[in-house]
Amino acid sequence: AQSVSQHNHHVILSEAASLELGCNYSYGGTVNLFWYVQYPGQHLQLLLKYFSGDPLVKGIKGFEAEFIKSKFSFNLRKPSVQWSDTAEYFCAVHSGYALNFGKGTSLLVTP
Amino acid sequence: DTGVSQDPRHKITKRGQNVTFRCDPISEHNRLYWYRQTLGQGPEFLTYFQNEAQLEKSRLLSDRFSAERPKGSFSTLEIQRTEQGDSAMYLCASTKMGGSSTEAFFGQGTRLTVV
User: Fold this and answer.
1) How much is the pLDDT for B100?
2) A34 φ, ψ to 5°?
3) Closest residue in B to A33 (Cα–Cα)
4) Residue B25: is the preceding peptide bond cis (ω within 30°)?
5) B103 contacts: CB under 8 Å, gap ≥ 6
6) pLDDT at A41 over 60
7) Parallel, antiparallel, or unpaired for β B110-114 and B88-95?
8) Helix (H, G, I), strand (E, B), or coil: what is residue A94?
9) A window 21-40, beta carbon within 8 A of B
10) Distance of CA A96 to the CA centre of its chain
C-alpha cells in the first residue's frame, strides 16, 4: 500500500529563516505529488503539485518543492518564512483515485 | 462563495445516535471525496463518487458508515450508532473528472464530537 511520511511533526522558526519540510512516499509507479497547507481555522488549500516535467516546482507564496525520484522524496522549501506562514503542511500522493496524505507538519513562525 | 460547502460545521451528539453530514461540491466537479481527519493526523480517505456512482467504499471505517450522492450533486455521509472514536473532522473535497493531476478543493469540514 502507498504511504507518505513527513519527518518533522512540529517546526518552529524565526521570521526570515529558511524552511525545508521533508516528505517521502512509497510507491513504485508514476506518482502525482502535492503539498497542501491549512492555515488556522481555514480549509486545506493547494500549495503546489508535481505530475511530470521539471522536478522543481514552484507554488504560491514563494514555496517550491523538488521531486527526487531516486529518493522517493518531494521536499517543500521556502527561502525566507514569514509569520503568516504559520500553518499545518501536508504532503500527499495521488493513488489512482484519491489522495493519500502524510501526518502533517505544524509550522510556527515567530516574529 | 463557489467553493465546497459542508454542513453543519460542528456537531455534538450523544453516543449511539445517528448523524448525517452534507457536502455541496463545486458545481462543475463530478468527483466528490470524503475524508476523516483526527488530531495529529493527515486526512484519511473514506470513499468517493464519480457523478452518482460510489466507486470506492472499502475504506469506510465500518458498516456504520455510509455515503450517498443520489443525483450526482450534493453528497451525504451518515454515521449510525456513533461511538466516541468517531469524534473527528470530516472533510469533503471535489475535483473534475480525470483529476489525478488536478487540484482537489476541500471544504472546511464538519467537526463531530461524540459525548
Assistant:
1) 54
2) -140, 150
3) B101
4) no
5) A46, A49, B95
6) yes
7) antiparallel
8) strand
9) 32, 36
10) 19
